[in-house]
Amino acid sequence: MNSPPLSRALSAAAEGLAVVLAGRTPDAWLAKLNAAIRPAALDLSFTALRDYGRGDFLLSRLLQKPLDDVPTHALLLVALARLERRPEEAHTLVDQAVTAAGKRFKGLVNAVLRNFLRQRERLLAAAETDEVARWRHPHWWLDALRAAHPEQWQAIAAAGNTHPPMCLRLNRRRALTSVANADISGQRLGEGAILLDKPLPVERIPGFKEGQVSVQDWGAQHAARLLDVQDGLRVLDACAAPGGKTSHLLELADLDLTALELDATRARRIAENLERLGLSATVKVGDASQPASWWDGRPFERILADVPCSASGVVRRHPDIKWLRRQQDVAGFAQTQVRILVALWPLLAPGGKMLYATCSVFPAENGEQVRAFMARHPDARQLPTGSDVLELQLLPSPTHDGFYYALLEKIA
After folding, report:
1. Considering 167, 239, 309, 359, which one is annotated as catalytic?
2. pLDDT digit string, tens, across residues 273-286
3. What is the pLDDT of residues 326-371, one digit of tens each?
4. Domain 217-410, CATH among 3.20.20.140, 3.50.50.60, 3.40.50.150, 3.30.160.20
5. Chain centre to alpha carbon of residue 337
6. CB atoms within 10 A of CB 111
7. Coil, strand, or helix at residue 237?
8. Is 359 an annotated catalytic residue?
9. Where are the domains of the chain?
């Protein structure tokens, strides 16, 4: 079967980028994306989103006046991101971008892209002098990173502009014949995890369909082990979709586990993942901050509070987040987190443990949140998350995304 022309992928990618530039998440675009061009369109669109701060800077210097046509504006951003990263494709890319532009704007697209190629070195040098263009993050985000991580902020920003790693989690409850015998190039990370040298579509991962393996970031795999589960415990996974941490907990021990999710559609994904892996849990649709609507009154011995957050630690997987989030959103998430923690704490049995988890690198959602909770709850004690480590802040790296964990015990 012949691959679709690059022009179609460019058009589809531009459509996805235009959705985000209009202030919306790309979920609906992703859902209707043609399967034949999906991989190429995703790569093009997400690369342009990661590079948007840079592309916007470059385009402002290549256009004599602002371009009102949003699809063409988005197409140029997609093409510029590709040209910078793959200059060897310049001839083909310009030709296909002109085709994608259509009759009305083909001359403009051709002129802008060829002008970029002529002025490439000068334009890219100028981009390095502009903070947003250089680091490809909004000003407020960079300021927050500098304040929170003065030694690592540049590395965190740079990581957010890369393609994310792909890590597998082996299902210890099922035979791993397919995975063990597969010619997979990767690195072992702890027990039951493989960091792939090169990402693969899930349909090409040996044993995935049979439930022998799941795709889960190495940083996310820390959660189930930190919660310290044993057979027979009653466990709540709050905010559980799509079910990666739920299924990991069930792979580690025989549990009476309730997986809670606010969104009914996302809750169905939990059930689908459990079925594929041969696992069982009670999946409920409900608000973690309103337990009266779903809790049966029996305490839990373990609670995973994987709370909503800015997702600042996973922006390379969801690059639209950088440009859709606003500074005030972090405070809004922090308020939601407080409500959930306050609501879930009474559900924890004396002597039980709660793992507070986010995929954020901002202290307002992490350590500051936990310290404020501890000050309000004298019956809470913070336990180490490792040797001499009271809290675990994973920063984005080539191995894993950014996550935060704090383990709290209710004093009996």
Report:
1. 359
2. 999 999 999 999 99
3. 999 999 999 999 999 999 999 999 999 999 999 999 999 999 999 9
4. 3.40.50.150
5. 18
6. 13
7. strand
8. yes
9. 6-133, 166-216, 217-410
